Amino acid sequence: MHPRVVMQIVGHSAMDMTMNVYAHVSLDVQRQALDVLNAELDRESPEE
Fold it and tell me: Alpha carbon 1 to chain centroid distance?
């Protein structure tokens, strides 16, 4: 669900309030993001 929709439903006047309250990142999602970032960095680094 788009954060703006959540903001309107819960009655927040600012997006940062909604994101601070409702946007949580699980450990699994953090690991997946780090795996993607690591793969990109490995792909772009020059060969030694």
Answer: 14
